[in-house]
Amino acid sequence: xxxxxxxxxxxxxxxxxxxFLLLIFFLVTTTIETDVxxxxxxxREDGDYIEYEQRNILSILIGVDGALLVNDEPITPELLLKxxxxxxxxxxxxxxxxxxxxxxxxxxxxxxxxxxxxxxxxGTQRETSYGAYIAVQNELVAAYNxxxxxxxxxxxxxxxxxxxxxxxxxxxxRTTKELLNNRIRVIQKMYPMNISEAQxxx
Amino acid sequence: xxxxxxxxxxxxxxxxxxxxxxIVFMLLFFFMTVTVMKNTxxxxxxxxxxxxxxxxxxxxxxxIEIHIGKPSSRYENIVGVExxxxxxxxxxxxxxxxxxxxxxIQSKPEHLRAFVTISLKVxxxxxxxxxxxxxxxxxxxxxxxxxxxxxxxxAFKNLD
Lengths: 202, 160
Fold this sequence. Notes:
The structure holds two protein chains of two kinds.
Chain A: H1 15-29, E1 36-41, E2 57-62, E3 68-70, E4 73-75, H2 77-88, E5 119-124, H3 130-156, H4 160-168, H5 174-190, E6 195-196
Parallel strand pairs in A: 2-5, 5-6
Antiparallel strand pairs in A: 2-3, 3-4
Chain B: H1 2-8, H2 20-34, E1 50-51, E2 55-56, E3 63-69, H3 76-79, E4 84-87, E5 90-92, H4 97-107, E6 117-122, H5 128-140, E7 145-152
Parallel strand pairs in B: 1-7, 3-6, 6-7
Antiparallel strand pairs in B: 3-4, 4-5
C-alpha cells in the first residue's frame, strides 16, 4: 500500500451561519404558550335546584358597562374583594352545627351563616364584556385564596397557594403529595368555593 | 517618546471565534426544545383577559381549545364583525360545539378521557351571551371541566 492520503478537511467555517439561520427560524416561530387560567367546574345539566336562605346568598350582577351590583347595591370593583371576604367569613350562626369557630367576621345577622353555606351567585347580561366577567371571577377566587391562606398559615404555617403549587408539581414525591392532599382538603372543607351562575328566582 | 512608540506598535490579540458555532448551537437547541408549533391558524381576534389568581393548565394532551372572538379583519366581509366561535381552524356555529367536543374526547386515549379540560380562549371584548351559550352546550355533553385561559396580569385592566 502506498502512502495514506490524509482525508481532506471539511470547512466548518459556515457552520455558524447555518446554525444562525436555524436559530433565527426557531426564534421567529416560537410562541410562548399561554397555559394559565382560572379553573371552573360547570354544574351538571340535570342538577337539582337547591333552596338557599336569602342571607347565605351574595348576588353579584355585572352590568353591560361593567358596573357591579352586589345584593342590589352598586359597588366599585376595588371594594368587591372586601365585600366578598366579609360575606364568606361572616360566620353569622350563633350556635349549633353551623357555628363557625374559625371565622373572623363580624357575625352579622344579614350575611352568611357559615362559609360552607355561603354561595356567590354571579349574574351577567348578554352584552357584558368577557373582560369584566373575568375580572370579577378573579376577585372571587382572590377572596377565597385570602381566607384559605389565612387558615393554612394558622394551621400548617404555610400558605394555601404554596401547598397547592407543590402538590401540583409533578416532581413532588408521593408521601409529600399525600400529606399535602390531606391538608388541602382540610382547608377546602373550611372554605369550599361555591360560585354559581344560576338564575336567581325573584 | 520612544516608550510611547513601542506601545503603539503592539498588536491587539484577536478574539477567537472558534466557539461561536457552539454557542449558537446551544441557543438553537434551547429554542428547538421550547418551541411549540402552532397547528391551527387563528381566525379570530384573541386578546385574552388578565387575571392574577391563576392555575397552571394541565398537560397539552388533555386540552380541547375553543377560541372565541371577533373575526380577523380579512374575514370580516365574509363572516361579519360579530364574535364567532373557532373550532380547530374553521369558524363554527354554536350547534357544532357539542359534536366537536365529543369527537375530540373520542379521539383521546381512554385513560385521559376523564381528565379532559376545555380551554376557553376568549377575546376580552367578546360578550358574555355567546360564552354562556357555549357553556350550556358543554354541559349538554358533560364536558364540565373548563378553564378560562388568561394572561397573567392585573385583572382590573380588563375593565377599561
